[in-house]
Specification:
The chain is mainly α and 285 residues long. It has nine helices and two strands, in the order ααααααββααα. It has one domain. 79% of the residues lie in helices and 3% in strands. Strands 1-2 form a two-stranded antiparallel ribbon. A hairpin with a 3-residue loop joins strand 1 and strand 2. Helix 3 runs parallel beside helix 5. The protein is globular.
Length: 285
């Protein structure tokens, strides 16, 4: 199992790292359509659809992403119809993560039916794809540092939970997660953000961009919110899997489960992070 897990990770890194640095933003966006299509197929299965329904959701996601990509002018100057549509997606996704998903995590009987869940998946996955594209336009390292926020949160939560975990976070949804793990994630990401703020002059990054508008204190408060949103994203995918009795979203990634299993926290964090940038830009315009 460990060998399979390592081989899969090596293959993925061998494809994604060169692509991240060598492909232009539009090429990267097209590559990410493959990932989002796989995630959409898995989401369809989590909704309870059979093969055809899950495939149709994947096709719809790709068609929507292509439409946004083709709608954008080559000289993407921030004033296109794509950006207007993208902002609507981001704000809608953020509202769902902040308002609806926490309610469903608390009262699972309020989860909508499979058709509504499919629409929800379309919106959240498309917003996540759009965020990955836009962050890549800011630079390869910019996107890598942004995604690192979730990776640091995951690692810090695992270490803290493993060593200090006593109080269960959501035992009915994900028995392994603890409040101590959440605290570890918060501390780990705060340290990560402070380190990147110190590196802003040599490696421009999201946290530096926030600090220019919000100051250091405001940025660290925003980082706290993003960390908690990443936890919500992780828990929500676990809820969908538990709802239909699945351990993994699929077996597309041998040793790792499915694509959604690897990007669940990115799915919530990246759109909310970009929505915050868009909101600040409009407020200060």
């Amino acid at each position: 199992m460990l060998k399979t897990r390592v081989i899969t990770a090596v293959v993925l890194l061998a494809v994604l790292i060169p692509a991240l640095f060598l492909l232009p933003p539009r090429g990267w966006a097209v590559l990410m359509m493959v990932a989002v299509a796989a995630a959409a197929w898995e989401w369809g299965r989590l909704c309870g659809f059979k093969t055809m329904g899950a495939v149709l959701l994947a096709v719809l996601i790709v068609a929507s992403a292509l439409f946004l990509l083709l709608l954008a002018p080559d000289d993407f100057d921030g004033n296109s119809r794509t950006e207007d549509a993208g902002e609507i997606l981001l704000y809608a996704a953020a509202l769902l993560w902040f308002l609806a998903v926490p309610v469903w995590l608390r009262w699972r009987n309020l989860l909508p039916g499979r058709a509504a869940l499919a629409v929800l998946g379309w919106l959240l996955l498309l917003a996540s794809w759009y965020a990955v594209w836009k962050f890549r336009e800011a630079g390869s390292l910019y996107l890598l540092f942004m995604m690192g926020t979730v990776w640091i949160a995951d690692i810090a939560a695992y270490v803290a939970g493993k060593n200090f975990g006593r109080h269960k976070l959501a035992p009915a949804i994900s028995p392994g997660k603890t409040w101590e793990g959440v605290a570890g994630a918060v501390i780990g990401v705060q340290i990560y953000a402070i380190a990147l703020l110190a590196l802003e002059s040599v490696a421009p990054n999201y946290f530096g961009a926030l600090a220019a508008r919000l100051g250091v204190t405001g940025t660290l408060a925003a980082v706290l919110v993003l960390t908690l949103v990443s936890v919500v994203g992780d828990l929500f995918e676990s809820l969908l899997k538990r709802r239909i009795g699945m351990k993994d979203s699929s077996q597309l990634l041998p040793g790792h489960g499915g694509v959604l299993d690897r990007i669940d926290a990115q799915l919530s964090t990246l759109p909310v992070a970009l929505a915050l940038v868009a909101l600040i830009a409009r407020a200060t315009a």
